[in-house]
Amino acid sequence: MSKKNYKVEVMNDSKEECELNFKLIIIGDSGVGKSSLVSRAIANKFGTDYSPTIGFEFYTFYIKIEDTNIKLQIWDTCGQEVYRSLIKSFYRNSSLAILVYAINEENSFKDLNIWLNEIRTEGNPDVNIFLLGNKVDLVECRAIDKDQVENFMKANNVKFFLETSAKTGFNAENVFIEAGKLLYEQHQECNKISINKGDTKEEEDNIKIDSKNLKNKEEDIMDETKRNKHCC
After folding, report:
1. 74 burial class (0-12, 13-18, 19+ CB within 10 angstroms)?
2. Would residue 218 count as lying in a domain?
3. Lateral strand order in the sheet of 20-27
4. Tell me, what CATH number does 25's domain have?
5. Distance between CA 40 and CA 43 in Å, rounded?
6. pLDDT per residue over 180-206, tens digit each?
Protein backbone atom coordinates (compact mmCIF):
# COMPACT_ATOMS: atom_id res chain seq x y z
CA MET A 1 0.00 0.00 0.00
CA SER A 2 1.34 3.41 -0.94
CA LYS A 3 2.30 5.60 2.00
CA LYS A 4 2.25 8.82 -0.01
CA ASN A 5 -0.66 11.21 0.29
CA TYR A 6 -1.73 11.49 -3.34
CA LYS A 7 -4.66 13.57 -4.53
CA VAL A 8 -7.06 10.89 -5.79
CA GLU A 9 -10.36 11.13 -7.67
CA VAL A 10 -12.42 8.13 -8.75
CA MET A 11 -14.25 8.81 -12.02
CA ASN A 12 -17.39 7.00 -13.16
CA ASP A 13 -16.31 7.44 -16.77
CA SER A 14 -13.47 9.16 -18.56
CA LYS A 15 -14.05 11.13 -21.71
CA GLU A 16 -10.50 12.43 -21.49
CA GLU A 17 -7.53 10.52 -22.82
CA CYS A 18 -5.85 8.38 -20.17
CA GLU A 19 -2.11 8.88 -19.91
CA LEU A 20 -1.57 5.54 -18.18
CA ASN A 21 -3.24 2.23 -18.89
CA PHE A 22 -2.68 -0.80 -16.64
CA LYS A 23 -4.00 -4.34 -16.80
CA LEU A 24 -5.20 -6.00 -13.58
CA ILE A 25 -6.23 -9.64 -13.37
CA ILE A 26 -8.43 -11.12 -10.64
CA ILE A 27 -7.92 -14.79 -9.83
CA GLY A 28 -9.14 -17.27 -7.26
CA ASP A 29 -11.50 -20.17 -6.79
CA SER A 30 -15.04 -20.13 -8.15
CA GLY A 31 -17.54 -18.68 -5.70
CA VAL A 32 -15.21 -16.49 -3.63
CA GLY A 33 -16.91 -13.34 -4.90
CA LYS A 34 -14.51 -11.98 -7.53
CA SER A 35 -17.18 -10.71 -9.93
CA SER A 36 -19.36 -9.40 -7.12
CA LEU A 37 -16.44 -7.45 -5.71
CA VAL A 38 -15.73 -5.77 -9.05
CA SER A 39 -19.42 -5.01 -9.58
CA ARG A 40 -19.66 -3.43 -6.14
CA ALA A 41 -16.53 -1.33 -6.70
CA ILE A 42 -17.49 -0.07 -10.15
CA ALA A 43 -21.28 0.12 -10.12
CA ASN A 44 -22.08 -0.22 -6.41
CA LYS A 45 -24.23 -3.24 -7.21
CA PHE A 46 -24.50 -6.62 -5.52
CA GLY A 47 -26.50 -9.51 -6.94
CA THR A 48 -27.82 -12.32 -4.76
CA ASP A 49 -28.08 -14.84 -7.61
CA TYR A 50 -24.79 -16.67 -8.16
CA SER A 51 -23.71 -17.13 -11.77
CA PRO A 52 -20.14 -18.33 -12.38
CA THR A 53 -18.02 -16.35 -14.82
CA ILE A 54 -17.41 -18.10 -18.13
CA GLY A 55 -13.89 -17.38 -19.30
CA PHE A 56 -13.36 -13.67 -18.71
CA GLU A 57 -15.36 -10.57 -17.95
CA PHE A 58 -13.79 -7.23 -18.76
CA TYR A 59 -14.27 -4.02 -16.73
CA THR A 60 -12.68 -0.58 -16.55
CA PHE A 61 -11.99 1.56 -13.50
CA TYR A 62 -11.03 5.18 -14.10
CA ILE A 63 -9.03 7.11 -11.55
CA LYS A 64 -7.19 10.42 -11.51
CA ILE A 65 -4.08 10.62 -9.35
CA GLU A 66 -2.63 14.09 -9.03
CA ASP A 67 -3.19 15.35 -12.61
CA THR A 68 -2.82 11.99 -14.34
CA ASN A 69 -5.81 10.12 -15.80
CA ILE A 70 -5.41 6.37 -15.35
CA LYS A 71 -7.39 3.50 -16.83
CA LEU A 72 -7.33 0.21 -14.97
CA GLN A 73 -8.36 -2.65 -17.23
CA ILE A 74 -9.78 -5.29 -14.91
CA TRP A 75 -9.89 -8.88 -16.16
CA ASP A 76 -12.19 -10.98 -14.00
CA THR A 77 -11.41 -14.68 -14.51
CA CYS A 78 -13.46 -17.81 -14.04
CA GLY A 79 -12.34 -20.01 -11.18
CA GLN A 80 -13.67 -23.35 -12.39
CA GLU A 81 -11.09 -26.09 -12.85
CA VAL A 82 -12.46 -27.14 -16.24
CA TYR A 83 -11.43 -23.80 -17.78
CA ARG A 84 -8.07 -23.43 -16.03
CA SER A 85 -5.90 -24.42 -18.99
CA LEU A 86 -7.90 -22.22 -21.36
CA ILE A 87 -7.36 -18.93 -19.52
CA LYS A 88 -3.62 -19.06 -18.79
CA SER A 89 -2.82 -17.12 -21.96
CA PHE A 90 -4.60 -14.09 -20.51
CA TYR A 91 -2.10 -13.78 -17.67
CA ARG A 92 0.48 -12.06 -19.83
CA ASN A 93 1.07 -8.31 -19.57
CA SER A 94 -0.66 -8.04 -16.19
CA SER A 95 0.74 -5.21 -14.09
CA LEU A 96 -1.02 -6.45 -10.96
CA ALA A 97 -2.78 -9.64 -9.90
CA ILE A 98 -5.49 -9.72 -7.26
CA LEU A 99 -5.73 -13.06 -5.46
CA VAL A 100 -9.10 -13.58 -3.80
CA TYR A 101 -10.18 -16.15 -1.23
CA ALA A 102 -13.27 -16.32 0.97
CA ILE A 103 -12.58 -16.02 4.71
CA ASN A 104 -15.14 -18.75 5.41
CA GLU A 105 -13.77 -21.27 2.88
CA GLU A 106 -10.51 -22.96 3.87
CA ASN A 107 -10.02 -24.63 0.48
CA SER A 108 -10.15 -21.29 -1.32
CA PHE A 109 -7.23 -20.15 0.83
CA LYS A 110 -5.22 -23.34 0.27
CA ASP A 111 -5.70 -23.01 -3.49
CA LEU A 112 -4.03 -19.59 -3.49
CA ASN A 113 -0.69 -21.35 -3.95
CA ILE A 114 -1.93 -22.82 -7.23
CA TRP A 115 -3.17 -19.48 -8.51
CA LEU A 116 -0.03 -17.66 -7.45
CA ASN A 117 2.18 -20.22 -9.17
CA GLU A 118 0.15 -19.91 -12.37
CA ILE A 119 0.31 -16.13 -12.59
CA ARG A 120 4.05 -16.11 -11.91
CA THR A 121 4.89 -18.86 -14.39
CA GLU A 122 2.41 -18.06 -17.16
CA GLY A 123 2.58 -14.27 -16.81
CA ASN A 124 5.05 -11.83 -15.33
CA PRO A 125 7.10 -13.45 -12.52
CA ASP A 126 7.53 -10.02 -10.90
CA VAL A 127 3.86 -9.04 -11.09
CA ASN A 128 2.51 -7.03 -8.16
CA ILE A 129 0.29 -9.15 -5.93
CA PHE A 130 -2.70 -8.00 -3.88
CA LEU A 131 -4.27 -10.53 -1.49
CA LEU A 132 -7.94 -10.16 -0.61
CA GLY A 133 -9.95 -12.03 2.01
CA ASN A 134 -13.51 -11.56 0.79
CA LYS A 135 -16.87 -12.17 2.52
CA VAL A 136 -15.79 -10.50 5.76
CA ASP A 137 -19.51 -9.97 6.41
CA LEU A 138 -19.46 -13.69 7.35
CA VAL A 139 -16.91 -13.07 10.09
CA GLU A 140 -18.75 -15.41 12.47
CA CYS A 141 -17.93 -18.23 10.04
CA ARG A 142 -14.25 -17.31 9.67
CA ALA A 143 -12.03 -20.26 8.75
CA ILE A 144 -8.77 -18.39 8.06
CA ASP A 145 -6.95 -16.59 10.87
CA LYS A 146 -4.41 -13.77 10.89
CA ASP A 147 -1.40 -16.05 11.36
CA GLN A 148 -2.26 -18.09 8.25
CA VAL A 149 -2.49 -14.93 6.17
CA GLU A 150 0.79 -13.53 7.50
CA ASN A 151 2.62 -16.82 6.88
CA PHE A 152 1.33 -16.95 3.31
CA MET A 153 2.38 -13.38 2.64
CA LYS A 154 5.88 -13.90 4.03
CA ALA A 155 6.39 -17.15 2.13
CA ASN A 156 5.30 -15.64 -1.17
CA ASN A 157 6.54 -12.06 -0.92
CA VAL A 158 3.03 -10.60 -0.91
CA LYS A 159 3.10 -7.12 0.62
CA PHE A 160 -0.52 -6.00 0.36
CA PHE A 161 -3.60 -7.46 2.05
CA LEU A 162 -7.15 -6.31 2.58
CA GLU A 163 -10.31 -7.93 3.88
CA THR A 164 -13.34 -7.04 1.82
CA SER A 165 -17.06 -7.61 1.48
CA ALA A 166 -18.79 -7.44 -1.87
CA LYS A 167 -22.11 -7.70 -0.04
CA THR A 168 -21.65 -4.61 2.16
CA GLY A 169 -19.14 -2.83 -0.07
CA PHE A 170 -16.47 -2.81 2.63
CA ASN A 171 -13.11 -1.93 1.01
CA ALA A 172 -14.39 -2.88 -2.46
CA GLU A 173 -13.49 0.42 -4.09
CA ASN A 174 -10.36 0.81 -1.96
CA VAL A 175 -8.83 -2.25 -3.62
CA PHE A 176 -8.67 -0.51 -6.98
CA ILE A 177 -7.76 2.88 -5.54
CA GLU A 178 -4.74 1.33 -3.84
CA ALA A 179 -3.89 -0.62 -6.99
CA GLY A 180 -3.97 2.58 -9.01
CA LYS A 181 -1.81 4.41 -6.47
CA LEU A 182 0.78 1.65 -6.39
CA LEU A 183 1.06 1.41 -10.17
CA TYR A 184 1.17 5.19 -10.55
CA GLU A 185 3.90 5.43 -7.91
CA GLN A 186 5.99 2.71 -9.50
CA HIS A 187 5.63 4.31 -12.90
CA GLN A 188 6.65 7.69 -11.54
CA GLU A 189 9.63 6.39 -9.61
CA CYS A 190 11.24 3.90 -11.93
CA ASN A 191 9.04 3.43 -15.00
CA LYS A 192 9.23 -0.36 -14.66
CA ILE A 193 5.57 -1.11 -15.28
CA SER A 194 4.78 -2.03 -18.89
CA ILE A 195 1.86 -0.06 -20.27
CA ASN A 196 1.48 -2.28 -23.33
CA LYS A 197 -1.27 -0.21 -24.91
CA GLY A 198 -1.15 -2.15 -28.16
CA ASP A 199 -1.33 -5.52 -26.40
CA THR A 200 -4.23 -4.56 -24.15
CA LYS A 201 -6.16 -3.07 -27.07
CA GLU A 202 -5.69 -6.30 -29.00
CA GLU A 203 -6.86 -8.29 -25.99
CA GLU A 204 -9.95 -6.07 -25.68
CA ASP A 205 -10.80 -6.82 -29.33
CA ASN A 206 -10.41 -10.57 -28.78
CA ILE A 207 -12.15 -10.99 -25.43
CA LYS A 208 -15.63 -11.53 -26.87
CA ILE A 209 -14.31 -14.21 -29.20
CA ASP A 210 -12.43 -15.98 -26.41
CA SER A 211 -15.40 -15.83 -24.04
CA LYS A 212 -17.61 -17.28 -26.80
CA ASN A 213 -15.15 -20.13 -27.31
CA LEU A 214 -15.19 -20.86 -23.57
CA LYS A 215 -18.99 -20.77 -23.58
CA ASN A 216 -19.01 -23.32 -26.40
CA LYS A 217 -16.59 -25.44 -24.37
CA GLU A 218 -18.98 -25.31 -21.42
CA GLU A 219 -21.91 -26.41 -23.61
CA ASP A 220 -19.86 -29.32 -25.00
CA ILE A 221 -19.03 -30.47 -21.47
CA MET A 222 -22.68 -30.24 -20.40
CA ASP A 223 -23.80 -32.22 -23.47
CA GLU A 224 -21.18 -34.90 -22.76
CA THR A 225 -22.37 -35.12 -19.14
CA LYS A 226 -25.97 -35.59 -20.26
CA ARG A 227 -25.00 -38.34 -22.71
CA ASN A 228 -22.98 -40.19 -20.09
CA LYS A 229 -25.85 -39.95 -17.62
CA HIS A 230 -28.27 -41.69 -20.00
CA CYS A 231 -25.97 -44.37 -21.36
CA CYS A 232 -26.03 -47.97 -20.04
Report:
1. buried
2. no
3. 8-11, 56-65, 68-77, 20-27, 96-102, 128-134, 160-163
4. 3.40.50.300
5. 6
6. 999 999 998 866 454 444 455 555 555
